[in-house]
């Protein structure tokens, strides 16, 4: 069990896996100098914190290995943080991909058949070169 230390005074006990996901979402918001609320309910108490760039936060992990991150969970938490209700930790969805999974090499998509090029408009005939003779109308 890790800890989120808010403003050096309040400590919330948070599972390391949840804490790793919280850290990514919180740091991304603070990097953009965005403030928001964060609600944490550990079953015995509920805490609502105002998170802003000027408030010190510490993410303290109990274990020595960082958990793999779940992209879908990060996106859900980021959406929550952008809402009026603020960041709320919700249950982790089943991951379809993890962020630290090695990416497969890019496989090109089959090309769609191309439309035939439009026929070009006929260009106007070039004007005759001046011959030095007067032009009659």
UniProtKB/TrEMBL annotation:
Composition skew (Pro residues), residue ranges: 119-131
InterPro entries (alphabetical): DUF7882
Compositionally biased tracts (Basic and acidic residues): 98-115
Region (Disordered): 84-137
Domain of life: Bacteria
Domain DUF7882 residue range list: 1-92
Entry-linked Pfam families: DUF7882
Name of the protein in question: DUF7882 domain-containing protein
